[in-house]
């Protein structure tokens, strides 16, 4: 169950984003708690603890709100209120697909269209998805993008920066985001890059006391992966 402090932060945004209806959901706090519990544990709806209310009610509210775009509006509203943009961190991780995901038949369209739709591909780590995130100064996710497992992280960087609600002071990334064009883009938006060069590249300025904060986004991935069951599919990361 959400604590009093947690619900105090969420109550007004949830009420502002939920669809208007003649009969609003009953005991909204408990229902939202059930939805969060289910996704944090990667469980089936029927496994929701009884003290969090009927599982079917939580499932209905989640599906109805997903179709109505409530979760996207709620995310945008929370981001506007609580994002810390002193630093932002770019990072990516590989997410293994379920073993049966490789057997799907092509559904038409070009390879690029299938990559955009399914975000599945083969890399050295196996068949899966590349998940990329941009996190704020507190290590909290602002936005995600997914790509096939063999894709490079750098093409996802600018679209992720475009989703920021403002201009940060620093953009921090590992060597996967190195490149003169990307650094110029960061400078052009009014921020400063803290991205070390590849070993074969010419040295560039990368302040160590800024770059060492990148562990915050690493801890973010650790928290996400610890909350997803090992038998889960890539969709659990969404």
UniProtKB/TrEMBL annotation:
<dbReference type="GO" id="GO:0006313">
    <property type="term" value="P:DNA transposition"/>
</dbReference>
<dbReference type="InterPro" id="IPR002559">
    <property type="entry name" value="Transposase_11"/>
</dbReference>
<feature type="domain" description="Transposase IS4-like">
    <location>
        <begin position="88"/>
        <end position="222"/>
    </location>
</feature>
<dbReference type="GO" id="GO:0004803">
    <property type="term" value="F:transposase activity"/>
</dbReference>
<dbReference type="InterPro" id="IPR025161">
    <property type="entry name" value="IS402-like_dom"/>
</dbReference>
<feature type="domain" description="Insertion element IS402-like">
    <location>
        <begin position="2"/>
        <end position="74"/>
    </location>
</feature>
<dbReference type="GO" id="GO:0003677">
    <property type="term" value="F:DNA binding"/>
</dbReference>
<feature type="region of interest" description="Disordered">
    <location>
        <begin position="100"/>
        <end position="123"/>
    </location>
</feature>
<dbReference type="Pfam" id="PF01609">
    <property type="entry name" value="DDE_Tnp_1"/>
</dbReference>
<feature type="compositionally biased region" description="Basic and acidic residues">
    <location>
        <begin position="112"/>
        <end position="121"/>
    </location>
</feature>
<protein>
    <submittedName>
        <fullName>IS5 family transposase</fullName>
    </submittedName>
</protein>
<dbReference type="Pfam" id="PF13340">
    <property type="entry name" value="DUF4096"/>
</dbReference>
């Amino acid at each position: 169950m959400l604590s009093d402090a947690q619900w105090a932060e969420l109550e007004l945004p949830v009420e502002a984003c939920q669809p208007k209806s003649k009969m609003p959901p009953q005991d909204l706090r408990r229902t939202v708690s059930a939805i969060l519990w289910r996704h944090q544990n990667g469980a089936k709806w029927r496994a929701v603890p009884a003290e969090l209310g009927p599982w079917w009610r939580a499932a209905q509210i989640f599906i109805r709100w997903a179709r109505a775009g409530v979760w996207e509006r709620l995310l945008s509203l929370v981001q506007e209120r609580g994002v810390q943009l002193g630093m932002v961190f770019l990072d990516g991780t590989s997410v293994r697909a379920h073993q049966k995901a490789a057997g799907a038949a092509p559904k038409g369209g070009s390879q690029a269209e299938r990559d955009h739709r399914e975000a599945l591909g083969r890399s050295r780590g196996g068949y899966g998805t590349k998940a990329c995130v941009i996190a704020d100064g507190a290590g909290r996710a602002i936005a995600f993008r997914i790509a096939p497992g063999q894709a490079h992280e750098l093409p996802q960087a600018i679209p992720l920066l475009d989703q920021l609600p403002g201009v940060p002071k620093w953009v921090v990334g590992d060597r996967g985001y190195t490149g003169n064009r990307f650094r110029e883009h960061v400078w052009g938006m009014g921020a400063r890059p803290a991205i070390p060069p590849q070993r074969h590249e010419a040295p560039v300025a990368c302040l160590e006391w800024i770059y060492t904060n990148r562990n915050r986004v690493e801890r973010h991935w650790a928290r996400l992966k610890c909350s997803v069951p090992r038998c889960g599919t890539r969709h659990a990361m969404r």
